[in-house]
Design goal:
Blueprint: E1 10-17, H1 22-32, E2 40-45, H2 48-57, E3 65-69, H3 73-84, E4 88-94, H4 99-120
Parallel strand pairs: 1-2, 1-4, 2-3
Length: about 130
């Protein structure tokens, strides 16, 4: 996947954690350290401190990690935009429940709005 987006300026890994899935957060943290490194890591959901502690113990620099515990989708999107620079690839991983579903809904609505705006600009008879 990373090779497919070699031209992007930044690679951001977004991990959604759940405090009731501590074992999964630890598994993801350990796997994360074996993958192609991202430029920045964002943790969302609940129980993010378990993931953060593990990756920092494994050598990830604290300045490459942002904990966005319990932040709503709009705040996460703003945070990701702030990390993105001119171009980025954001890879979401982990549990989809909670903030994961909220982000999915956010991007679906944004896509629908963009399609509606585009449709408003198509000249009559051009379709």
């Amino acid at each position: 996947m990373v090779q497919r987006y070699e031209g992007v300026e930044r690679r951001i890994a977004l991990f959604n954690c759940r405090e009731d899935r501590v074992d999964r957060s630890l598994q993801l943290a350990e796997a994360c350290m074996r993958w192609h490194p991202a430029d920045h890591y964002v943790l969302s959901g609940t129980g993010t401190e378990v993931f953060a502690r593990r990756v920092i113990q494994s050598g990830l620099s604290r300045d490459r990690l942002t904990c966005a515990e319990s932040q709503p989708a709009t705040q996460l999107v703003n945070l990701l935009r702030g990390q993105s620079g001119r171009s980025s690839m954001v890879m979401g991983m982990g549990n989809i429940a909670g903030p994961g579903m909220d982000l999915l809904d956010y991007f679906r609505k944004a896509d629908q709005m963009q399609r509606l705006q585009f449709a408003d600009h198509i000249p009559v008879g051009a379709a």
